[in-house]
Amino acid sequence: MNHTNLESKGSRSESDKDARILRQGRKLFIREFEKQLKELETLLDAVRVKPEIEDLNRFYRIIHTLKGSAPIFGYDRIGRLAEELVRLWEWTQTIDTDQALSLTSTNPVQENAERSLVLLRDMNMEYDICLTEIQMDEQKDPTGGSMLRTLKSRLLLVDDDEVLRSYLTRRLQLDDCVVDEAADVESAMKLLRTHTYDLVTLDLMMHPQSGYELFEFLKEDPTLKWLPLIVLSGRNDLNDKVRCFHLGADDYVTKPFQYEELAARIYGLLKRTKNFEQLAFRDPLTGVFNRRYFDLQIGMELQRIERYPAPISLVFIDIDFFKRINDTYGHHVGDLVLQGLAHLLQTNLRSTDLLARFGGEEFVIALPNTSLEQAYSTIQNILHIISSNPVAHYEGKPFSITFSAGVAQWREGLSVADWVAKADEAMYQAKQQGRNRVICASAEKESDSNKSASPPLPEKKSLLIVDDDPILRAILTSHLEHLPIAITHASDGEEALGLMQEKTYHACILDGMMPRLDGFSLLDQIKKDERSANANMKVLMLSGKKKEDDMLKGYQMGADDYMTKPFSLVELEVRVKKLMNFI
């Protein structure tokens, strides 16, 4: 046993020693390679002016040496470049001094020299990359390197210069970026339709289409118009710069440039973009997108589908018995549950899926390129994962949950509001059927000619909002319109009373203080008239007063719930759902 351990340790020691020797050898090679590159450039300049046999032979010896030594240290690309140079200049080894004296511009020297300049440029790029790799390998801090490494971004490089693309790709990959390349505008368009990118770099001068045509493509696509774009151009022309900025470029870098500067510009642009997104479009508790972003993005997604038809499905999720968790363990545990569910949902969805917190314990998911059946299968699998594993722990206690979900596939002509309502209605069916399940909304297959003969859909529950503040009425409507309800407004008590004489309402949000007929007086009239169809209407009183007497007065007069201004819209929505028997 001891003998085996000694052999194992000896083997590891030899392996470590070999690795150290290889690292030292690579460093020595790169140090010498730098000197060789400078000498090759000097010799090539001399040969282009006056070909001398000594210069040609010295040039050949250096590239022949590189051809053999570079692969030994793992630098295969340098070896291949040197091999191509050797092929270009092999003929010089068969000429004698008399022939060398007769070399003129009509001989292969000038043509080979031009090609060699390109290959030496490629070698210089390889040297830059190899030196960077060695420096990063020597750094003790594994997070060393440019700040770009901290963002883990996906970039698209659009440039018809294959060497530059390859160089930038490898440098960016060293900075932990995922990089895709496109040699022309058409290829870039295909990649942009397929993948989601954090930033694009674009060369203006390309064939057969110029980079300007990609500007038009990005501007016309609502899902891409905000994508950060850096122009890389060999033209330092003021008109070009102004035109690019007017077309939507975020930065303009002139070639030649230093990689470090480009990396810093990319980092700064991505950092600002991510900070803005975090502030404007993320739910601060769970970190997933908020409803504001969902409303913006889903409209763009449907515009994309109009141009590139494909199925898309929507899922509406509501945590089962979430109120019980908050009431029993406190809102801090409820927050942990929300965070845990959001995390599990996100990790089990595709990067192209859109997850957003809709409000309270509700989440919505848009699944592009997904049919109703595929979406059902996906969410059913996620439900199984979540119901089988705790979503949170607090003081050593695990917390497990289930959810109810409704799935609806978008159909042509369906508005976003109706689409969300269909998924929401399916979710409530899941609640009514016992929770912990996924229900699909029924598809409308009837043709337009048959729709008129179809039986009428069941009438939505009706909600009356009575408040003299038009802004507050608009806010409440906007926040509640995703529910399967019909909302009516009244600006004062008298208008509301007239509406109630014509129609029955399931619930009413009623402001206590209004001109003409205040909310308390209206409530008193409603509840006293037992013959009124609205006598059993549920009432949520709103008041700017926090006095206990007012609250008591409201409850005594028949209000079912009472909230003081200002209030949480999320909490109000929960209370409205409860009043209308949605939860």
From TrEMBL:
<dbReference type="InterPro" id="IPR000160">
    <property type="entry name" value="GGDEF_dom"/>
</dbReference>
<protein>
    <submittedName>
        <fullName>Diguanylate cyclase</fullName>
    </submittedName>
</protein>
<dbReference type="InterPro" id="IPR011006">
    <property type="entry name" value="CheY-like_superfamily"/>
</dbReference>
<dbReference type="InterPro" id="IPR043128">
    <property type="entry name" value="Rev_trsase/Diguanyl_cyclase"/>
</dbReference>
<dbReference type="InterPro" id="IPR008207">
    <property type="entry name" value="Sig_transdc_His_kin_Hpt_dom"/>
</dbReference>
<feature type="modified residue" description="Phosphohistidine">
    <location>
        <position position="64"/>
    </location>
</feature>
<dbReference type="Pfam" id="PF01627">
    <property type="entry name" value="Hpt"/>
</dbReference>
<dbReference type="Pfam" id="PF00990">
    <property type="entry name" value="GGDEF"/>
</dbReference>
<dbReference type="InterPro" id="IPR036641">
    <property type="entry name" value="HPT_dom_sf"/>
</dbReference>
<feature type="modified residue" description="4-aspartylphosphate">
    <location>
        <position position="203"/>
    </location>
</feature>
<dbReference type="Pfam" id="PF00072">
    <property type="entry name" value="Response_reg"/>
</dbReference>
<feature type="domain" description="Response regulatory">
    <location>
        <begin position="154"/>
        <end position="270"/>
    </location>
</feature>
<feature type="domain" description="HPt">
    <location>
        <begin position="18"/>
        <end position="127"/>
    </location>
</feature>
<feature type="modified residue" description="4-aspartylphosphate">
    <location>
        <position position="511"/>
    </location>
</feature>
<dbReference type="InterPro" id="IPR029787">
    <property type="entry name" value="Nucleotide_cyclase"/>
</dbReference>
<dbReference type="InterPro" id="IPR050469">
    <property type="entry name" value="Diguanylate_Cyclase"/>
</dbReference>
<feature type="domain" description="GGDEF">
    <location>
        <begin position="310"/>
        <end position="443"/>
    </location>
</feature>
<dbReference type="InterPro" id="IPR001789">
    <property type="entry name" value="Sig_transdc_resp-reg_receiver"/>
</dbReference>
<feature type="domain" description="Response regulatory">
    <location>
        <begin position="462"/>
        <end position="580"/>
    </location>
</feature>
<keyword id="KW-0597">Phosphoprotein</keyword>
